[in-house]
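Reopening this ticket.

The earlier resolution said the output was attached, but the attachment link was broken on my side. Pasting everything inline this time so it's all in one place.
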Amino acid sequence: AADVFMWRNKHISAGVLGGATAIWILFELLGYHLLAFLGHALIFSLGVLFLWSNASSFINKSPPKIPEVIIPEDLVVNIALSTRHEINRAFANLRQIALGRDIKKFLIVIAGLWLLSILGSCCNFLTLFYIVFVVLHTVPVIYEKYEDQIDTYGEKGWIEVKKQYAVFDAKVLSKVPRGPLKDKKN
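Inline output:
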């Protein structure tokens, strides 16, 4: 996956990006729906396989070899357990934020959700997913090519963010009253 994102093999990377663009055009610009697409693809595939299986005796060809697909139980259990673990971790983080113990994390989450709501009002999920996909295919290559210049601007930007946060902390956050801290019993 890293080689695809870093364009080590230009043909594969271009094929992946072109495929994603074709899917986006199919669903977004032409208004085709995923469920209808899956249904039509399955109808077409099953029709071709059915005709091939029945016509194979007439044209003296072997029928198609269709493998039996069985999903192993341990794979499904492992996926479910890891998904459950990640969801529980997310709930624990949200609980910590909601309890008001870390105002910096609270403000970051609120800003992120606000930006996400703005993005969501501008475009639908498929377009947003496509934009993220294209960004993931272009930003690593650009960063690798212009790493020194980007790092210089990044350091300057980070210093400015720290300055602005210090001002915000001094003028706003320091004036927010905090409740009394409860002592832990040993």
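Reporter confirms the inline version is readable. The helical segments are 2-5, 10-29, 34-55, 73-98, 103-122, 125-145, 147-171. The two ends are 50 Å apart (CA to CA).
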